[in-house]
Write a structure and sequence with these properties.
By secondary structure, this protein is of the alpha/beta class. The chain has 10 helices and 8 strands. The radius of gyration is 18 Å and the shape is globular.
């Protein structure tokens, strides 16, 4: 993943990191990336593993990446337990995120440092989060947004040796009730002082203009989850609603198409590809 983010940095673009939960989502995302000839990241968050087990999803994501005509990194999103991070690395994930954002700073540093040491053994990239991204990746309590403190970000990057930093700048996971106002001033300050690629979580619902502005200020990876899950569900529902008797194979194709359309749209925004 580090190589993809460095290449994106040279071009002044961002790599789309797309969450997947089944084979159709993997196929839709890869099809869009190949069609636009751009690298992407396929990712799955630890909270999603109860629906889509790592032992099944991991090898499929890795096989899809290996067979693709473009470069694809395979990433564990929001790793919460060291054990899960280790399992993903052993399966061959090229990067992992460890989310210690709800921990006190010193504890977050300590735990991320241990993840960096483990990932190093596998030649894998590590992303971590500082500040609190709002909403929630999955069910449960919604978190209040807490913007990343630039001073903490400097200390955190120096002491952990992390490769990429997810920032909290007013972004939140899930659908926003109203379009968010991102704190570009905070992003700019972090980008000036931290010399690693920055990551924007909570991509669903952020406007194209805001994405592009954030990319100009150092965002090199953008996470999209909810929009792909919602697109898949909508295309599947529309297909079923329009049929007296649904057919599995057509339903599967509708799911792939829903994800493909969403991923394609976002890749174009993140890579400044205009129609
Ligand atoms: P959304 O569900 O808001 O797109 O957020 C995705 C994300 O940040 C995954 O970590």
């Amino acid at each position: 993943m580090k190589q993809l983010l460095e290449a994106a940095d040279k071009k002044g673009v961002a790599v789309g990191a797309f969450s997947v939960g089944n084979m159709e989502m993997v196929m839709g995302a890869v099809r869009a990336a190949e069609e636009l000839n751009t690298p992407i990241i396929l990712q799955i968050a630890e909270v999603r593993l109860k629906n889509s087990p790592l032992e099944l999803m991991g090898p499929m994501m890795i096989a899809a990446a290996k067979n693709a005509k473009v470069d694809i990194a395979v990433h564990l999103d929001h790793g919460l337990k060291f054990e899960t991070v280790k399992k993903a690395l052993e399966l061959g994930f090229t990067s992992v995120m460890f989310d210690g954002s709800l921990l006190p700073l010193e504890e977050n540093i300590k735990q991320v440092h241990a993840v960096v040491a483990e990932a190093y053994k596998h030649g894998a990239t590590v992303e971590a989060e500082l500040g609190v991204v709002g909403g929630n990746e999955g069910e449960g309590k919604k978190h209040e947004i807490l913007c990343t403190d630039p001073d903490d970000a400097v200390k955190f990057c120096e002491q952990t040796g992390v490769d990429a930093l997810a920032v909290a700048i007013g972004n939140a996971h899930g659908n926003y009730p109203v379009s968010p106002e991102l704190r570009f001033d905070v992003l700019e300050e972090i980008n000036k002082r931290v010399n690693i690629p920055l990551v924007l979580h909570g991509g669903t619902g952020i406007s194209d203009e805001q994405f592009r502005h954030a990319i100009k200020l150092g965002i090199r990876k953008v996470n999209i989850a909810t929009a792909s899950f919602d697109h898949l569900a909508k295309y599947a529902k529309d297909y079923c609603d329009g049929k007296e008797k649904a057919n599995y194979f057509e339903l599967s194709a509708a799911e792939v198409e829903g994800v493909y359309q969403n991923v394609k749209r976002h890749i174009k925004v993140f890579n400044f590809i205009n129609d």
